[in-house]
Structures are given as structure tokens and as C-alpha cells.
Specification:
Length: about 450
Amino acid sequence: MAISPEIRQRAEALIAAERARFAERHPVSRRMAEEAGKHFPGGVPLHWMLDWETPFPLFVREAKGSTVTDVDGHAYADFCLGDTGAMFGHSPAPVAKAIAEQAMHGLTAMLPSELTAKVGSLLAAHFGLPFWQVTATASDANRAVVRWARAITNRQKILVFDGCYHGQVEDAFVKLEGGKTKMKPSLLGQVQDIAQMSVAAPFNDLDAVEKLLAAGDIALVLTEPALTNTAMVLPKHGFIKGLLAAARKHGTLVCLDETHTISTGPGGYTRAHDLHPDFFVLGKPVAGGLPTAVFGFTANVEAEMRRVLDTKTPGYSGIGTTLSGNMLALAAMRACLEEVMTSAAYEHMTRLAKRLAEGLRAEVARAGLPWTVTQIGARAELVFSARPLENGAEAAAAIDHTVERAIHLFLLNRNVLVTPFHNMTLVAPSTTEADVDGLIARFGEALAVLCGEAEI
């Protein structure tokens, strides 16, 4: 058993103690939450900001580099980094400069910027696909890819993997239950049963994928190269390449969503492993944290897009918004791709992430716990499992929200931020060895409390 009853009991007590500690340390945040709550439910402009599960929201005064400073004056070493949105640090200097300069010359005009050709060249050079489109979010990019794939193949079904996450794309809100695809019951306001047109498969199971593709009715496989929004699941050797080969055999297109796995390297998991998908999606980090996203595609897909457009009924396609590809987004992307997402930055990030992962493993071993730590480039995650996970079902079984919450609150009250959704950490170019060593030390202290070696 990865989580013993004794650890869970201590976690519950630790949560109560850390909530009280948080409330005592953050009087200004408490006051701001009460004031904001008059117009924003829970005191936040987006309900996800309540996922930290503090007694009231933590309000930020400044975020710069790898440091977040709250309104009560506490400075935090930030390993959450906006859940990848600020993966290269908060307000990277080249991006901040580009945004400030472009803001004086227009934000959005529904016309191409003079930077368009330059950004296209940078995207192609980084990620290896010749054609690109810009959207406002990764969710928008994935929705566009799903529509294009259905239009090109004249097929209706989409295949995703159990435990996946692709933003707000409705087609991905399915799971495996008893060997069958079911719509996730958490989805609000859904009218039609998504499971009629989406199929869920177990990650890392090529035989299962092959059987589903053989039916000849799947337009697109939409997947992350590694499952990252549950307990992290890495692909087995050869799985993604086998998936691509099986899809081509059965006339199905493949999209790799690298919004999270861009932590792998400057070209993402795709370039690092010499993969050749039909589509490629990248969201949050591509413009250094400015809300925008891109999707790339092959020359064959681009030719099929033109065929579809030449034959479709005139009118709105359901793809794109008037804010997509705006001048501000292009300026930020140019700066991020050219000056921030460098090989030198990734070398620093990956080296420190390795140091972090090794340090966390050492603390887990010292505590005698049957847990693992998974790393993919600049991203490392604690998993409550004695061995690396293989699929979404194993990931779901490994999650323990009580113990997660206890660790997260303990770290937060000691000036370290990790992603509140699970035990994920990110290392930025601005992260220091002292930041990493501090997280490892505080994590060890948390384990000592959970294991009964130290007082709460």
C-alpha cells in the first residue's frame, strides 16, 4: 500500500494545522479575498485559483523570474510556474520588452503582423512542421485540430487516452470504465454523450490502439507524448512511434499536444525523439506566459485543408476567433522562441530538474516510503506508487488528494509553491540551486511529519 492509514491520519492533522498557520500569516490576503468576494465567487476571477485549497486565496503582488511575492510580503520559490504558462520564469525580460514595445503600436487588428513570416520560420525551425496557425489557447488549438481532422478524413470519431488532459476540448472528456468508454461525470452542462464520438484507450497499450484503429472510423488520435495531468505516466520505449505507424496504416491522423511536455527540450518531446506527427499543439509557454497557442501541421495536411476549403459551403468554419494571431501575441512569440527557449536555458532547467528529482528520491528513500519520482526534462513529479506508472488507471489509483494537500500546504507555508493539482514541479531558467535545495529540504521535513518522526 503506497499510503498507509497512519500517514493519511497524520496528513489530515497536518492539513488542519497548516490551514491555521496560513490564515495567521496572511491577513492582507484574507482582507482582499473578502473584498473581491463581493463580485468574484470565492474571491477569484477564475475558479481554478481556489484549487490551492487554502482557507482563502493567496493574493500575488509580484511574480518575477522564479519568485512570487504575495501581498503580505512573503516571497516564494515558485515551482508551479503557472502550471507551465510561466515555464520560462515570470515575465522573461525579452518577452516583457517585446510586449511593452508592441503595446505602443497596436494589440489586435485581425490582420497579420510584420512579424508573421519571422514567427513562422521560428516555429518550423523549433518543431519541425512547415505550416502553422495561431489560436488564443491550447484548448482552441486542439478544437481546431479535431475539426480539421474530421473534415479531412470524413470520419467522426476521436481517440484519446484514459487519464489524458487537453484543456476544455469536450471530445477529450471521456474515460475507461469496465473496459468501455464513458463520459466523465464531472463535465458541466453537457447535452450530448461525448462517448458516442470519442474513444478512450489505455496509454502504453499498442494492441488496444491497433484494434480500435482497425475499425476505420477514427479521424484523429489526440495525445500528449506523456500523460501529465494525472500522476505522471511516461511512454514505454517505442510506444509513440508505434502509435504513429499504426495510425498511418489505418488512415488516422495524429496530433501530439506538447503544452506540458515542452519541458523536454527546445523542440519538445517530438524533436527530442524524432517523431513525425500530422499535427503538433503548443499552448501556454510559447509566448512566455502571454495567453496564446499554436498548432502546426505537415504539407500533406495543408494540401488537404485547401481541398476542404475549396469544397465547403461558404460561411464560418467554427475555427478561430478575432483575437487569434494578434500582433501582441506574435511579438511575444518571436521573443520567446528566439531569445528565451534556447538550448542553454534547457540545459540549465534539465540539470536542476535532475538534481531536484534525485533529491526528492533520496528523501523518499530515507523515509522508507514506496513512492517514485518521475522526470521529463524540466518537469519532475512525486508519484505515490512503488514503480513507474503505465497508464491512466494506475495513475488514478495512485493519487491521494489528502496526502498531496498536506504536502502542498506544508511547502506553501514555508515559502515554496508547487502545482496544486498534483505533485508536479517545474524548473525555470531563473531557478537556482538554492531554490532546488530548499524545496528538497522542506519536502524532507514534510515527510518527517507524515511518518511520525517530527511533531506537527
